[in-house]
């Protein structure tokens, strides 16, 4: 082979080697850079269950009405902390009301509101006989127990249906018909019911203690009984 042919072959091999090196560098960069980008995008768009995003609707359900046991609620097999088991001096979690009022509001119908006018709710995993709450720990980030000192002023509700239970942190949670009462932090004010049918377990409560199953979101199923 003459010298020109040798030089031509060497040049070709050099180009092939350079191409292989460039391809390897590109693949390594794409694998590292691409994976990081996807992870950052996912993290930026994530919303935790404990901090649900607010609905743009002024009234009505804001969150998932599908299966589940409610935000942060323990499984039914997990026993709740014993009443009064919190450390001494701990501040009970919840909203302290001075009154409970049964009233009719537009669209929703009969509801019970606290002294600030917020809609109150009951939770299907709680029990009315005996009255007991299963909402504690992470659940309390979204659902605030309605607390009372002594006997609250009662309007539009049979006083015989109003009671209270002691919570693990020492707070006294109001009950109607045996069902513990809660606020939903997503309501952001009176005359709202964004917590209605959340996880098909949380319901606006009526002055009798029964569920109010009006204004259900798409996908929610009114419970039987």
TrEMBL record:
Residues 50-90 are annotated as: Disordered. Residues 50-64 have a biased composition (Low complexity). One of its GO terms (biological process) is alkane catabolic process. It holds the Pfam family Lipoprotein_15. This is Lipoprotein with Yx(FWY)xxD motif. The lineage of its organism: Bacteria, Bacillati, Actinomycetota, Actinomycetes, Micromonosporales.
């Amino acid at each position: 082979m003459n010298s020109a042919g040798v030089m031509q072959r060497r040049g070709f091999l050099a180009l092939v080697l350079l191409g292989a090196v460039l391809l390897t560098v590109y693949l390594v960069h794409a694998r590292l850079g691409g994976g990081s980008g996807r992870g950052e995008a996912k993290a930026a768009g994530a919303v935790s269950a404990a901090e649900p995003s607010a609905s743009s609707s002024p009234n009505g359900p804001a969150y998932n009405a599908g299966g589940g046991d409610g935000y942060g609620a323990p499984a039914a097999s997990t026993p709740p902390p014993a009443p009064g088991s919190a450390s001494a001096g701990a501040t009970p979690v919840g909203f302290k009301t001075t009154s409970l009022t049964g009233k009719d509001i537009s669209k929703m119908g009969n509801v019970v509101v606290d002294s600030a006018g917020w809609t109150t709710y009951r939770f299907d995993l709680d029990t009315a006989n005996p009255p007991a709450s299963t909402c504690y720990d992470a659940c309390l980030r979204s659902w605030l127990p309605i607390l009372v000192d002594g006997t609250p002023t009662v309007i539009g509700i049979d006083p015989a249906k109003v009671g209270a239970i002691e919570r693990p942190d020492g707070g006294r949670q109001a009950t109607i018909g045996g069902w513990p009462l809660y606020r939903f932090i997503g309501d952001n004010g009176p005359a709202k019911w964004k917590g209605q049918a959340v996880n098909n377990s949380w319901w606006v409560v009526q002055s009798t203690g029964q569920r109010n199953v009006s204004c259900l979101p798409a996908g929610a199923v009114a419970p039987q009984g």
